[in-house]
Amino acid sequence: MDFRFTDDQLAIQAVARDFARRRIAPIAAELDAKGEFPLETMREMGQLGLMGIEVPHEYGGAGMDPVAYVLAMIEIAAADAAHATVMSVNNSLFCNGILKHGTEAQKQQYVRAIAQGEAIGAYALTEPQSGSDASNMHTRATRNADGDWVINGKKSWITSGSVARYIVLFAITTPGIGAKGVSAFIIDTQRPGFHAGKVEPKLGIRASATCEIELHDYVCPKEDLLGPEGKGFSIAMGVLDAGRIGIASQAVGIARAAYEASLQWARARKAFGQPIGSFQLIQGKIADMKCRLDAALLLTLRAAWAKAEAELGGGRFGTEASVAKLTASEAAMWITHQAVQIHGGMGYSKELPLERYFRDAKITEIYEGTSEIQRIVIARNETGLR
């Protein structure tokens, strides 16, 4: 792995950092308080190439690599985790899934619009009765006389579900055979039969418009089946490997923001006539925060590098993605906790963003595979046992 970044990677990092500090950071607290989706800034991010970083130029994207994506994601997440969540879904789950498994027509029609910021994409796997047990879904798709698919069911915890134009959705097409009976579809939310349900009142990432969606006799044209029939579950799991790199990057960004705020506070805040950063207990916290932050960053970059190598040689990067996601998410939760403690009462106040970092960090241990699931994935891949 080469630790030197290319000019292109540094350029997209600089673009993301400038946009995050200039456009996102000033509005992040207000969006969090209102739970308001940042449609305007998401469109601007698309125009800057941030919504399709790994999408080839011919499909409207920036044509960059996974490392560039990680660098940009960290900058956006350091300003606001909700923006980073939407960015991650659009890049990792929506565009990546269609690029890997879609037809040429699907790539042109659906990927381009998302990559350029003209529309928002979403990913619908989870259902009310199924979280980590993702194959236990009830949403059904059956063929009609024309060969199109009629879909009925409910999905929950869908990021951008109330504002998305297109959604990659998974449904049972052959009941009774478990994961082998799942297929993937591309849903146009403007077609009859699609309904966005209640928006979830979340602890963190409150501006990301997470909601339930329902489909009632929704007719999905046969051309919008994504990949072969019955291969939906393997598509979902493969896409989640890429998604976990995005969430690891998000966690690193949140953790970095909390760490940098703590450094400034430790230098400026005085107690007993001296900066609190001169106290050994605070120094110990700072040292441990730095170690965990650097470990999370390096493991996330390793996962991105492994993804790039896998795309060139047909290998796999699932273990590296799970290691990065597990390490970074738990580091973010620990670092933000310590940051609140270092700030004392002000860390608990909404006058500073520390409490928002703390709330936002928690979800990185849950979505796109809980920490418990990551440990199972890593152990099974290492031992070869199921």
Number of helices: 10
The CATH level-2 architecture of the largest domain is identified as Up-down Bundle
Order of helices and strands: HHHHHEEEEEEEEHEEHHHH
Strand content: 5-15%
CATH topology of the largest domain: Butyryl-CoA Dehydrogenase, subunit A, domain 3
Q: Which regions contain 5 or more consecutive residues with pLDDT less than 50?
A: none
What's the shape? globular
Fourth-level CATH superfamily of the largest domain: Butyryl-CoA Dehydrogenase, subunit A, domain 3
Strand order of the largest sheet: 1-4-5-8
**Gyration radius, to the nearest Å?**
21 Å
Domain Acyl-CoA oxidase/dehydrogenase middle: 122-217
Catalytic activity: 3-sulfinopropanoyl-CoA + H2O = propanoyl-CoA + sulfite + H(+)
InterPro entries: Acyl-CoA_DH_CS, Acyl-CoA_Oxase/DH_mid-dom, Acyl-CoA_Oxase/DH_mid-dom_sf, AcylCo_DH-like_C, AcylCo_DH/oxidase_C, AcylCoA_DH/ox_N, AcylCoA_DH/ox_N_sf, AcylCoA_DH/oxidase_NM_dom_sf
GO molecular function, one term: flavin adenine dinucleotide binding
